[in-house]
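Researcher: Checking consistency across runs. Here is Haloacid dehalogenase-like hydrolase domain-containing protein 3 again:
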Amino acid sequence: AMLRLHLLTWDVKDTLLRLRRPVGQSYAAEARARGLRVPPEALGPAFREAYGAQSRRFPNYGLGQGLSSRQWWLDVVRQTFVLAGAQDGAALAELAEQLYLDYCSPHTWEELPGAADTLRRCRRRGFRMGVVSNFDGRLEAILTCCNLRQHFDFVLTSEAAGAAKPDRRIFEEALRLGGVPPEQAAHVGDDYGRDYRAARAVGMHGFLLRTAGRDPEPQVPPEHVLPTLSHLLALVEK
């Protein structure tokens, strides 16, 4: 069956870009550079704990609760170090500011195999293109510094949309920005619940990037699964 697709929307983290090294390693290196002694092996688990607690207490960067996404992140970083045994204080506040900036830098991110090439080829075939990502306002800068921003007609973050995937409102806003009905749009992402299932719940098509080490999702027909991004073109051209 012909997929009459006019709009492709894309998740970013672990779909187009991934971190060059685990958060714990980045945090440990920055702390060492500032003479802060923190056990590096404690930082990964501490980050997951701090991030999880903050996400439950202040969903989607605390937007509805009067926080800025910047403040949200600075709190997560400080709390990560406190949980790992550091003393909260001026040095930690400075470190948090530095790490907040570091995550805007191309040194922090790398492209997934085939990302730029696939985006370029999709553009050339005339698809409208957009980003739909649970991210904060830094995403525009990250996409620009990693040389991917020019492929997209719009970049929609959960911070800008006021709703985070899997909430249908962020996908509805993307369809409005793309100017198409859901059956003419497909979303590409690596997360079954937030990307594949959520897009299909609003009537969009979905493609699930199956990254190595992820358990296969039994509910996804094989023709919706992408072993790599380069597999997408053959499927959207059907």
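Researcher: Does this match what you'd expect to see?
Model: One thing to look at in this run: Residues 192 and 217 are 7 Å apart (CA to CA).
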